Amino acid sequence: MNPDKREPVIELRNVWVNYDDQPALEDIHLTVYQSDFIGLIGPNGGGKTTLLKSIIGLIKPERGKIRVMGKSVDAGRCHIGYVPQTVVFDHRFPIRVWEVVQMGLLGCRKPLQPISKADRETIHVALEQVEMDGLANRAIGDLSVGQRQRVYIARALAVSPQILLLDEPTASVDPQVAGSIYELLRRLNNTVTIVMVSHDMNAVSSYVKSIGCINRRLHYHGDKEVTEDMLTAIYECPVDLIAHGLPHRVLSPHNQERRAHD
Amino acid sequence: MIEALQYGFMRNAVAAGVLVSIACGIIGTFVVINRIVFLSGGIAHAAYGGIGLGYLLGINPVIGAVVFSVISALGMGLVHRRTRERSDTIIGVMWAVGMALGILLLDFSPGYKADLMSYLFGSILAVPTSDLALMLILNIIIIILVIAFYKELQAISFDETFAFVVNVPVDRLYLMLVGLVALTVVMTMRIVGLIMVIALLTIPPAIAGLFVKDMKRIMALSTGLSIAFTFIGLMLSYALNLTSGATIILIAGGGYLLGFGLKRMIGFKPDKQHPEGIKPQQ
């Protein structure tokens, strides 16, 4: 697939983000095209989450421009389904699973609009997609961590998004559940563009279409190979890469890779 | 004890108890799940500034309290939203300053302030019919706004980050919520006094939350509990000639203990076996 023929859905130009005067992201340039499935890897504190939060406006960059679906972040994020890494809440919080998913429908519409029959169907379909429709009436605090993660994905799907942003969607679930979440994402990717932050290299390499590395600076070439300059730039990345022995080759043999880049 | 109801002031007291319980059941649920108990305590005490203002200007102190507590609630709400850390310190300061202001304004007000204690400790037996009308209006405002924004209020209470990301006006809704807390506080002040308002606001939803996990059911159950507590407290205080506000609060506190005991005894997990969230036997 030639990226040039597809629509850009997210564009970051020269984006800098500081945390208390400490640079968290430096000079980020990124263009996400329609139907991309990008996995972002990088060391802890390298700015993976910060990048996602900047795209949805939870963090305002110091400098630079971010456009979503060709619009400003505030308007464009109506097309984004966001799955945060964790949702901190009181486990006795009185909210049912379907009410959590309903949150995806609340914004980006006229205020005071009641939930319509079509909206209820959207909630139902979103829950079906993550195989959680049987537990729609449960209180969210009664679910397991993995089940809850699926509910948050359903909530993002209820937005009817063009883009899904996921922050470590499998960080706290067992491998089997993680596998089913990745399978789900692969299916969803037929219609939705996905950007996912993860430190799960195995998963990233076998499910995503392209990989980027972040360690304050972003190294992304729109393909699935982790190139040598990424490794050099992001010291922590290769440790993970080499240690686990990947089912799909991410690293090209050294000399070949050189030639490709010369 | 029932023959007490033949007195007009007793009927007013019961009616006030019911009206206040509705507001407390609904808004108290939001206070508990949002963990803004301290902020609500601050609003209640700062309302005393409004009482003082009312006396000074020669208007109904309740009106003064409504205006003053709504303004201080919005101030505390903004502090809570905008300050990243230690907002509780600032709220604590506003709590005390509001109260101190009330005391000084009362010093400046001429005349004998007979019913001052009733605002501090409540006087359910002295609620005039005009106050009942005011309570009814405040209740209607609260009910209409909560019905209109129920989904949004639940959403910002559960996960405000996500609500923000889908462009729900989190800040405005939050300020509306603390404004409603202020209205509820002023109503409840009539019954148990501003010092004990926080108990009637939090105890019923806290008990309900032990047994039910659906927000609407918590609201309904806490309204029912609150009506029961105020009615029992009222009757007891009448029969035994005790201070009504304190009796109501002690009944509510006893109810809380009983709720804990009951929950431990039956080892009940809310709604676990009941997908529809069926309420257990009380």
Layout of helices and strands:
The complex is a heterodimer of chains A (262) and B (282).
Chain A: E1 8-19, E2 22-33, E3 37-41, H1 48-55, E4 63-68, H2 73-76, E5 80-83, H3 97-102, H4 117-129, H5 145-158, E6 163-167, H6 175-188, E7 193-197, H7 201-207, E8 210-215, E9 217-220, H8 228-233, H9 236-244, H10 254-261
Parallel strand pairs in A: 3-7, 3-8, 5-6, 6-7
Antiparallel strand pairs in A: 1-2, 1-4, 8-9
Helix pairs in contact in A: 4-5
Chain B: H1 8-34, H2 37-57, H3 61-82, H4 87-108, H5 116-121, H6 129-148, H7 150-158, H8 160-165, H9 170-192, H10 197-211, H11 215-240, H12 244-266
Helix pairs in contact in B: 1-6, 1-9, 1-10, 1-11, 2-3, 2-4, 2-9, 3-4, 3-9, 6-9, 9-10, 10-11, 10-12, 11-12
What's the quick description here?
The complex is a heterodimer of chains A (262) and B (282). Chain A contains ten helices and nine strands.
Describe the structure.
The complex is a heterodimer of chains A (262) and B (282). Chain A has 10 helices and 9 strands. Chain A has 262 residues and is an alpha/beta fold. A 6-stranded mixed sheet of chain A has the order 5-6-7-3-8-9, sandwiched between helices. The longest helix of chain A is centred in the middle third of the chain and has 14 residues. The radius of gyration of chain A is 19 Å and the shape is globular. In chain B, helix 3 packs antiparallel against helix 9 and helix 10 packs parallel to helix 12. Chain B is 78% helix and 0% strand. The two termini of chain B are 25 Å apart. Chain B is globular, with a radius of gyration of 19 Å. The relative contact order of chain B is 0.16. Chain B is mostly helical and 282 residues long. Chain B contains 12 helices and no strands. At the A-B interface, helix 3 of A face helix 7, helix 8 and helix 11 of B.
What is the H/E string of chain A? Answer: EEEHEHEHHHEHEHEEHHH
Average pLDDT level of chain B: 89
What profile does the largest beta sheet of chain A have?
6 strands, mixed
Number of domains of chain A: 1
Work out the number of β strands of chain A.
9
**How helix-rich are the residues of chain B, as a percent range?**
over 70%
State the separation between the terminal residues of chain A, measured CA to CA: 23 Å
